[in-house]
Amino acid sequence: MLASLSRRAILGIYAVIIIVPLTVVGFGSFKSTQELFAGPFSLPQSLSPANYAEVIGGQDLGSSFMNSVFVTAISVPLTLFLASLAGYAISRLKGFMAWAIFGFLVLGMAIPAQANMVPLYVLFGRLGLLDSLAGLVLANVVSTLPIAVFILGGFMRTLPKELYEASSIDGTGPWRTYVSIALPLSAPSVAAAAIFLFVIHWNELLYPLLFIQSPGNRTLPLALLSFQGEFQTNYPLLFAGVILASLPVVVAYVFLQRYFVAGITAGASKG
Amino acid sequence: MSTHTKMAAKRKAPDSRTETDAANGRRRSPTRVNPALYLFPLPAVAIIAFFLVMPTLQAFQYAITDWNGFSAAFNYVGLDNFVRAFTKDSLFTNALTNNLKFVLMVVIAQTAFSLVLALLLTKNSRGSILLRALFFFPTILSSVSVAFIWKFIYDPNFGLANAVLDGVGLEALQGSYLGNNAQALYWVAVTQVWFHAGQMMVVYIAGLQAIPRELYEAAEMDGAGKWQQFKSITWPFVAPATSIVVAYTTVQSFKAFDLILGIAGNPPKQSLDILSTRIYSTFANSEFGYAAAQSIIFMAMIALVTWLQRRLLRLTPKGE
Question: pLDDT tens across B90-148, in order?
Fold first, then answer.
């Protein structure tokens, strides 16, 4: 009795601690500053999208939204493609070579982005990749490739070898086997990795902060950050920005909730 | 009795395994590897080599120079940058201390709290599944968004925390949170736990659901209380999950860069400066050589702490 009561109390209080701030942010994005400060919990007087309009129009958040879409839409599939190619080869090669390639690729998980940001910045400067979206794509791919190989390679190694043997007896080349056997069978782990990468790439801040100079090339998190500098306590405006920046991930989460948990925990438990 | 069977198993197992393995190996090795397979990992290997491994090695080279990032000329200064970091640069040692404090707070709080949540939500009832989804939700937000939300909660004048305390008549507890240098780091730790506890909860739930129900039934019949059951069944069984949670939380909180920058501004004030933000400031200040040295200390720090944890928390299920 007492136990179930305290169980409910803990869960209830934590639920409130999550729901209330998010609701206040949602309501607040439709309020004026005075209205928000007068009563943060009250419903907005009107559902006027003025803050959203100001965020999208006034600043270049609209273009940074498109930049984020572009960078994410290329980084995620590209990382998955490269990682699945490597994972596939690792699952078919034997002995030392498989081990060495896997080890080399996965070792990168131990290198935090801040550790090599100085030389990477210099390298990107020499290659003309600074202040470009292509540079951001490349940085995203590099930083998440190790863990993607870990997830996909780990899964592909559990596929029964007999399938590969059967297909090679049928005379199928490795590429055909990759496309028509290895990839379809790895669909669950590809989906999990895709969601994991989507969250990381969409929310990435360090690389844009390092590499991007012109406002037109900003991605959403970077635009939001510089936003905060300009509108110190204009919380309604910040809230509208927060909601715009979170919208794609939140919508995806509502529909694909189970896969999100699987994806991000695959990253967590193996990262 | 049990020692008998164990010994027997020990004596028997190795021989039988090696025999069949050897036989298998001999039978299987003739399947040839198509050389074209080596082309598949090539793009990934090239990218990692060129953009991750090479720059990391280069960081070691930059670290022993006084390079400013732009001029062609620079000097090799040996270990001066490292000496400077630890002995002459109070900003760096301050960031290092903050970072270690922050990691310690978050690891303890997040591990304990995510385990509590997992214990309360193990059963697959509809309510549990709904709450799990809710508690997991903050994990998918961007750190900048989370930082803004909590900046508002902590705002001393208009913030949510003070408004709530006001509403329930606890004005005495109102504070300036991030404005208070002695406390600021604690409040960011709270934010970090809110951000990621749900994610670690899920790791724990997976561990908890793997425990056979019969063990609890047996324990109950033997008259073991709830605490006794937790101590001798649950805890040993979730040990692997605990090592994952601790290791992951450590790295995550070492790298709380985005959250700090979002909540404290760029550059953050001293009481909230951690290693990654300090490295960034040094870099932004065009001290490339010194920033590289700091980043190597940072990397070594993470490696050291992770290694220490593995040594200290060799958490394996009982009996293995």
Answer: 999 999 999 999 999 999 999 999 999 999 999 888 999 999 999 999 999 999 999 99
Q: Distance, in angstroms, between A84 CA and closest chain B CA?
A: 9
Write the CA distances from B146 to A149, A192, B140, B158, B308, integer angstroms: 29, 23, 10, 18, 31
Residue showing tokens 């280069």 = B58
Contacts of A7 in chain B (CB under 8 A): 120
Q: Is A15 exposed, middle or buried (0-12, 13-18, 19+ CB in 10 A)?
A: middle
Give the bridge partners for B76, in sequence order.
Answer: B65
First to last CA, chain B: 19
Amino acid at A237: L
In degrees and rounded to multiples of 5, residue B133 shows phi and psi of: -60, -40
Burial class (CB in 10 A: 0-12, 13-18, 19+), A101: buried
CA distance A51 to chain B (A): 16
Q: Which residues of B238-265 are buried (b: 16+ CB within 10 A; e: fewer)?
A: bbbbbbbbbbbbbbbbbbbbbbbbbbbb
pLDDT, tens digit, for every residue of A29-42?
998 888 888 888 88
Axis-axis angle for helices B90-120, A2-28 (nearest 10): 120
The model's pTM is: 0.88
Whether B159 contacts B103, CB under 8 Å = no
Residue of A nearest to B242 (CA): A269
Task: Report which of A75, A74, A64, A65 is spatially closest to residue A212, judged by C-alpha positions.
Answer: A64
Largest CA distance in chain A: 75
Most distant pair of Cα atoms in chain B: their distance: 79
Between the two ends of chain A, the Cα-to-Cα distance in Å is: 40
Cα dihedral A109, A110, A112, A117 sign: negative
HSE-CB of B168 using CA atoms within 13 angstroms: 8
Which of A61, A78, A114, A124 to probe the B interface (max B CBs under 10 A)? A114
DSSP state of A27: H
CB-CB under 8 Å, B44 with A145: yes
Cβ–Cβ gap B152/A24 under 8 Å: yes
CA nearest neighbour of B258 among A112, A75, A267, A109 = A112
- How many residues would you count in chain B? 320
Helix (H, G, I), strand (E, B) or coil at B65: strand
Q: How far apart are CA A86 and CA A100, in angstroms?
A: 12
B111 vs B115, B147, B238, B249, CA distance in Å? Answer: 6, 21, 12, 8
